[in-house]
Structures are given as C-alpha cells and as structure tokens.
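For the sake of clarity, the format in which proteins appear in this thesis is described at this point. Each number in the token line that follows is a code from a learned vocabulary of backbone shapes. One such record is shown here in full, so that the layout can be seen directly:
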Amino acid sequence: MLQRNGVRIRPLDLEDLDKLYEWHQDAEIDAWAGWGPRMSRARFLHRYEEVVREPPEDFVLFGVEYGDRLVGYIELAEMSRISRRAAIGFVIGEKDVRRHGVATNAVVLMLDYGFSLEDLDRIYAEVYPFNRASLRLLEKVGFQHEGTLRRHEVHQGVRTDLAVYGILRDEFYGRYSTALPNPDRR
C-alpha cells in the first residue's frame, strides 16, 4: 500500500493472524502496551478474523512489513468522522528489526494515510510514561506532548499515568511530503 525507506504498511490478511497472536502472547510487548488479560488462541483469532473481514468504521489495522516480512502492525482506532480525529497505536513484534527506524517510518506512513485518505485533522497517542522508546519516536515524528492523565489506568496491578501526544495535519505536512501517488489529495 504505502512505502517509505524500505518499510511498507498494508491491510492485514487472515494468514497474518498467527503472527499477531504470537506477539499478543509476548510478555515484554505487553509490558509496554498494557493489553491486559491474555485471550485464548480461539478467541483471539475469532476477534481479529472479524476485524480483517469486516473492519469497523472507526478502526484501521495494517501490517508493517520490512525486508519482505511482517514485523509488526499499526492502527488508527476510535476514529471520529465528525471530529476528524483518531488514536494511533503500533507494535513492532520482531525484535531483530527494532531500533532500525521501522516504527518511525510506519508511523509517518500511517499519519499520511490518516490525514490524506481518512481526512483526519488530528491524530493522538496515549503512552505510558515509562515507555521511553515510544515517547522519543512520537517526538521525533513531530507529535507534541499535550498533557498527562494522572493515575489514569491500572497497568499490571499498578495505577499508572498516561501521557497524551498529538499531531495536527498541517504540522505533519509542514515536516513531511505525502507518500501517496497523487500529492494533491492532502
């Protein structure tokens, strides 16, 4: 679908779900993402098969490819067509490609997709403050820290703050050009 510096985002296929389930079971990833209770494989596959086959109106889920293999996924969630905003989330599940710019490029591509093709005006992220790698990535891409929701969530049994970061369409296109074939779309 969209490509930048060897990173590609594309719609997920049913064949990708086993890899997503593998990442869902990874305790290290969960420590940063805070997914909560584990799902059985059957429940996980049932839930995500529906998302792949019949995506909800307020949710976009793409695979992240690097080196011709699926290495993660990225999503726009809680999309509001009226308010023209969405939350972004991402996971690079393959440890050998972390710290190679894969997540940064995937986020830039997803922002371009969201602003251009979904006609969003604002995209935000909610991140645990201890997830320094994600905070640095968001700031590097151009997100601004908008505030901290104090003791907002319970993560692994501990009440935890949640940092909120946001980027606006004009801020993004002030830094990046579109990867879409028709640049007049933005």
Remarks:
- The chain has a mean pLDDT of 92.
